[in-house]
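Memo subject: From amino acid sequence to discrete backbone structure tokens
Action wanted: Derive the backbone structure tokens from the amino acid sequence.
How to read it: Take the token row as a discrete description of the fold.
Attached in line: The record itself begins immediately under this heading.
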Amino acid sequence: MNTVTSRKPVLRTVSLLLLVSLCIPFLMGAEIGAPSTKNRQIALMVRGIVSAQHLTQHKLDDEISERALDMFIDRLDPMKLYFLKDDIEAFSAKKRELDDMLEKGDLQFAHDVFLQYIDRMEESIEVAHDLIDAEHNFKIKEYISTDWDNLEFASDRDVLTERWRKRIKYNFLVLKGDKTEGEEARERLHRRYNSQLKQIQQTSSDELLEIFLTSVTTCYDPHTTYMSPTTSENFEIQMRLNLDGIGAQLTLEDGYTKVTRIIPGGAADKHGELKTGDRIVSVGQDDDGEMQDVIDMKLNDVVSLIRGKPGSTVRLGIIPEKSSESKILTIKRAKIELKDSEARGDIVQYQVPGTKKTLRIGVINLPSFYMDMDAARRGEKDYRSTTRDCRRIIEEFNEEGIDGMIMDLSTNGGGSLTEAIDLTGLFIDVGTVVQVKDPLGRVQQYDDRHKGTSYDGPLVVLCSKFSASASEIFAGAIVDHGRGIVVGDSTTHGKGTVQNFLELGSRFFNISNPPNLGALKITMQQFYRPGGDSTQRRGVYSDIVLPSITDHMKISESDLDFAVPFDQVENEVDEVLSARSAEVIKALKAASQKRVKDSEDFQKLISQIAEYKKQQEEKRVSLNEDTFFAKKEENSAQEEVQDNLEKRANGEADVFPDTYYHQEVLNITGEYIQTQS
């Protein structure tokens, strides 16, 4: 299955202050044992495939080995709160040997590093508990560093204890901001750190294998990753937009599995008693299965217990948000459609300023390029598809009558390459949509071969730095074919590589039910716009740029380690300028800049952007109470942006919310429509 993959995790970028409070590494499963024969075989498979088929053709050598050790340590201890300098020096003695280990499938070093990590965590968490019970002075002037990349590992335990003292002070300040103080705050922090330690102690060998192998593969490029069986299953669920379960979004908070969202139309929504904020403390199967305690259990394991076949029953022991009394809910599982990531459409009435004229503007909000890969493999004709859903919406627009259209890809992190090509075909007649180059330098064109369009009127593509991969294929083709204009952040994300999703079990075992060995998502191709430019690192430039905090966040492809360089191939398309007159774009840009200059909302945002950039340069947070909360107030703009992005990504907001930013997008679209008529 070819996929340009998703950059959805980017949408979870949190504020500077929140980042400081998140130290749980990305881990998920029984306790670590010795490396198994199965995992050694998986390591050999991954090493062989990546060495032979990766786009860069980089061999697994000492350079990759050194990168991988740094990456592995950073994934375990990104804020340098556990390992000591002596640990790192001991690990570094083997920094050029990881490639040799993988040649033999030897995983013992990874296990040894992880066991040392657990030991160091146990020591640090014990210190943390003492500091939680200590008194702290919040009136003195001191800071906690957020420049983790340039932070040295602590030379001894005393230096590390001082680092933890500041961290605990910061935790107390964050909790106070959430109206939690005194003994309640202490109890929450004790519970939090006990839970973090238990989570890590539950890590399985399979999960450690994912962390270690991905530390190696991401040294080739940021998007080549090994997925454990659980992770690969979750990836396919996201692509097909359905799963079997109760329809609740969960998170882990201080040891409790907390309900953060009830999916509309799902089993829990229809049941009616499970609410946002409820904490799940136990899970039982069917009507009489034993209730299993899930406090401090890893989130993936809790999710596995709750998921099940449609029609079966699960019992949840919950503590409601504003209660200390538990109760048991019995919910019948069902197939859940993940509608938060599907295409949604609406027609917006736009009053042309200074006239009585009203324009009808169709808006499609597309959060991802989804495709039910499993159904496609089975040969089903009506499998879930981005293009099919968007075609239906466009047909509805055409029936009702629209003057222009906005394709909103501002929260779209990518997805299926096939869907990106097919969706572009709804807007162009025929011709090249994307060009793809393989590791041997061979270039293949992927064309829209279906003559005619579903929509051929004025088109505006709304993008941001969160618009990645498949979004950039679509936007780039629209520009190169002269079909429309791009509005939003100065450029898109800049991910111009294609990944293949290889299920290792079915790849190496030609049997009807191959073992689940996880999957490798490997970068094997680079894509190029019809005009010859790659979007890699560069993205698709907007014709009209609107002020935005996201435009200044370090979230682009070019900000990632070991990103593939920008490149070009032959120009396969001469730009058709009928809908992209340079004169028209210049006039639209000038008119927009004047409105932005005259807008109090935009001018306030521009001031907030300046403050945000200043804070990013400081790379520290004050632990003085008065200064901390003053800065927190100044951070409100960024937190508001984050909240809005979360809501839009979850499908909780309107298709096109009524904001001053979107009003300006409508102004641009309205003027553009009039130039085209």
In short: Confidence is low (pLDDT under 50) at residues 6-30. The longest helix spans residues 108-133. DSSP finds 22 helices and 23 strands in the chain.
